[in-house]
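Follow-up to my earlier ticket, as requested here are the two runs.
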Amino acid sequence: QGVLSSLSFGGDDGGDDPFNAPNEWEEEKRRGLKPRLSDKGVPGIGSSSRRAQQTAKRAERERTAASAAAVGNKGDGDALELTAHSAKRRAGPVVLPLCASWWDEMQVAEGATSVRTAEASGRFKAQAAELYERELEAFAGSQSRRHGSDARFVNKLASKGTIKDRVAALTVQAHESAFHALPCIAHLITMAERPARDVKLLAVDALTELFLTRLLPPHRQLVQFERAAFSTKPTERELLQAHYEDALKAAYAQLATVVIRGTSDNVLHTKQRMLSSLCGMLSGKPELERMLLPALVNKLGDPD
């Protein structure tokens, strides 16, 4: 009895105590009246039954808690709305043209110069990298609107298909626009750096074809960002062009490193394929001649 008397089942008004909660159906039955039925014709679970009253109280508590949480999180909601608005604003229109021969689309302002301080060059380079990320977002949105299900199918192949499907899908995406092909090139280079020889050869062949036929200028070498010429107050277009050419030069250097390393492979077939790619890169375009020529000369005494 002492234990039971120390227990509390709610306040004076009955609270949530299931033993003290009023039940009009039982009261009417006890007084000899005909109990009222609920809307579904089942006694005891109408709007005034014990179960309905308990459910109503729980719902009221949940509404109160939800209101308090909404007031407390008002600032977070504003921040999320601001973030979404900023993301939408960042996407913007596509600045760089969709083209194949990107070197014919380069725009250089009058009075452009490559002479600037290291601090200014670093600041412009960081700004250009941010602008290019926005450019890729805008390009992806544009392609999705233009091609719809076809674009989604190619994206699915590039991410979840077989090795051959992925290489083919990435090659197709890179052909859509040279200025926006850097993500596809980076993905293919990652595949070329894998230890599996079949994957490496497929990726190297695709990259060699892309660089020699579409991405490298025919009569000049690529220019690093620090040596790119643009005005003292460069436009977004100028910064994007300089960033693209600098990143393309770095990507081609990565490919050359993979190919040169592959010329020393233990498997004869892989070595011969890499030597063939090395010869094609050296004879096809003037880019990285000082890196490719010594590597090819060193293989002249190779017995294989």
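Run two:
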Amino acid sequence: MSRRPLTARGGVRAAGAAVFACLALMTGVLFARTQTDTGPRGGTVSADRPSAPSTVGAGGAALPSASARASASASASPRPSASPNALPSATVRASKSPTVKKPPAAGPGERTMTLVNRLDQTIWPAIAADPVHPVKATGWVLPPGGSLSFTIPDHWDVRVWARTGCDFDAAGNGHCLTGDCGHFQCGRTWGEFPSTLAEFNLNAWTGMDFYDVSLVEGNNLPMWINSSGGTSHDKIDANGCSAAGCTRDANATCPAKLQRIRDGHVVACLSACLVFKTDQTCCTGPNAARPQCVPSSWPVNSAAVFKKAEPFAYSYVNDDETSVLTCSGECDYRITWGAST
């Protein structure tokens, strides 16, 4: 189903609208949202696969493969069931606050990205690579309390998400129960929805970065983004709170019609678009214009559920006013998975 890109969502008031108009002209489409809930978006996957999944935990230490962890520890994420669309029992209780080690120094024209897991389950972060500005890896694993950092290029246009319940063979092929892309390294393949997304367009317009958390495609895990090192004030604090509220688990308040359930637990909350697949709920076709895109008219208002859980995140495609975040001056970023404590 069609999705409008980040830079063309429109509706930002006054000066914001002008900024996005210029950005759309200068940078083009950031993300072409055409994925459905039935499988990962098509695309090429990097041919450079490790002989075994290269996994990094807290402090950059190598970790065993998902299969090895599953057999060695009863607390490891469950193996996928026969159905590739099945999802794991998602636990969103915050683990002990991780100690984030000093990230590597970024070189000229580079930034630093840090990923932090504050959940009590293992997650497998991934990115859909920007082919114009590639990075060395597009998949990682983070145990509870783990963190890792890596450098990213300027002018970076990507999505970042976390997978759960993954199992890979020695060649890095396998599946995850949420956010699956079919490989440990996702390359240029997007993960399956529903999944919570971090979206970035760096140095997109006169040195300004645009970024956001998006629940437009549904929620699998709570997430927030912090910026640092730039000249802009970060509107989100280190605990995932903003002036509008703190980060909560949308699965905990998800209406029955939007729930995805496994083993008696709500493990994901789908958007109304993913459930009903209509122009009305997806804001497409005759409902594409802002006056016709009205979440309160949907059979179930998923936008209200998502906005209550993460007040700073995109809750539907036209939710620009309170969801677009910016940073100027070569900013670094930290993505945290977890709920505010």
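The only thing I checked on run two: Residues 1-96 have pLDDT under 50 and may be disordered. Let me know what else you need.
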